[in-house]
Amino acid sequence: MTKKKKPYIILFNPDQWRGDVLGHMGNPAAVTPNLDEITREDGVSFRNAFCQNPVCTPSRCSFMSGWYPHVRGHRTMYHMMSEEEPVLLKTLKNNGYHVWWGGKNDLVPSENGFDEYCDIKYVPENQPKPMFGGIFDGGEDSWRGLPGSDTYYSFLVGKLEKEQGEAYYYDSDWANIFGAIEQIKNAPEDKPLCIYLPILYPHPPYAVEDPWYSMIDKSRLPKRIKANDLSEDMPSMLAGLRERYNMEGWSEERWTELRSVYYSMCARVDYQFGLLMQALKEAGIYDDTAVFFFSDHGDFTGDYGLVEKTQNTFQDCLTRVPFIVKPPAHHQIKPGISDALIELVDLAATVHEMAGIEADYTHFGQSLSPLIAGIKEEHREAVFCEGGRMHGEYHCNESAPANEDTSMLYWPRGEMQRSEGPEHTKATMIRTKDYKYVKRMYEEDELYDLTQDPGETTNRINDPNLTSILFDLKEKMLDFYQETCDVVPHRRSSREAKAH
Q: Which of 30, 59, 223, 389: disulfide with 396, CB 3.0–4.6 Å?
C-alpha cells in the first residue's frame, strides 16, 4: 500500500464501556485478550480518553462532528445532527468512501433517512433475537421482580439462555458483526471501505450468554466505590437515583454478580472485535486499515451504589472510555499505552488526517497522530464534559413514554431529569490529570484531588488549601467556553444586492 492510497477505516463503537475494564490497563478481572494484543503489537491505547457528554446521543453528535455539545445545542437524547451539520460518516462518503453502517443510530433523525451518511444501512437477512431476551422488545421480564422490589430497576438480568446447539445468543449485535465480516470479504474494489459498528453491548440491561457469562473471576474484581464512602455535598442526582432504584439494601455478593455480568458483556465484545480483526487479515487488508475502538461513555456498574448512568454527573466511571487506535501499517507508531489526556472530539480530526481529508468547517478536535507515532507524549492540558439543563428548558427534560411510566426501566432517571429542583442542573466538568472541577448551576460545585482521591469520594470545593487550584480551573473553563462558544461558517454570505 502506498501512502497516497486512502486507508480502510473501522469505527468499532461499543455502547457504555467504562475505560477501566481492560486487561492491558491493569484490571485483573477484565477478559480482553484481543484488545490487549492489538495494543501490544499494532496499536495505541489511551488511558485518559474522555467523552464530552455521559449519555448516548450528545456524545455521538460530539465525536462525529468534533463539536462540543454546547456548540449547537446537542445535549439531549432528542436533539440529533441536522442535515446541514457535519457528520464524519457523511464526510467520508463525500470523499469517496463506501460507508457501511451496522448498528444503532442515536446520531441523526431517523425520519431523514441514512442515504447522506452511508451507502449501506445494514439490515440482517436472518432475523436476530430480541436484545437481552426481549427486555426492550416486549419479551419476558420476570427477572425484574414486582414493582417496589429491589430488583425492579436494577437492570440485572444475568445469564441469557441459548437454544440447544447454538454457539451464540444471536441478537442484533451478532447480526451486525457477521454482516460487517461479510462486507469485509466483499469489499468494493473501486472505493476504500469504512465500516461503522455502533453495537449495543455492554449497555445494560446486564445480560450475557455463556461462555462469556462464566469467564470472569469475581474474586479479582476491583474494589467497588460504595455510597457510604461519599461526602455529604455530592450532586443531588446521585442520592435521588439511589432512592428510586431502591437497591441500597443489596449485599456485596449481589453487586458482585451485577459487575461480573457487565465484565462478561465486555468480554463478549472483545471476542467480536477479534473476529473482525481476523476477517481483515484473511481478506489481506489488515495492514491497509485504520482501526478505532472507542465507547461513547461509561457506566456506574455498582459504583456509588448506582447502575446505568446519569446525564449531568461526571465521575470517571462515566466519562473515561476505552480509546484504541491501530493505524495503517505505513503510519509511524509506538505501540502501547499513552497517558496523554484526549477527548472523543479528537476522533474526527484523526480520521480526517489519516484519510487525507481537509475539513471544510470549524471543529475542535486535534489529531492523535503525533501521540500514535511517539513524537509527542502530551496532547491536552485538560478535558471537558457537560450535561443537564437550566430551569424552564422543558424541551430538554427528555419527557418520553420510555421514562414517564413507573413500569419502565428508565423511569428513575427520567423522573429526576424532569425535576425543576437542582437535580438535573446544567453542569460542566474540567479535568486535568490531577484535579477535577464541576461547575453546577443550582447546587454546590465539586472539586476533587485525584492524586489523593481517585474515586472522587470527597468534595473539596470549600477546602482553602485548594483555592489556587480552583481559581486556575475556573480560568481554564472560561477560556474553553470562549474558544468554543460558536462556529463561524467557512462560506461567507453575499452582502451585495444583485443587479436587475
A: 389
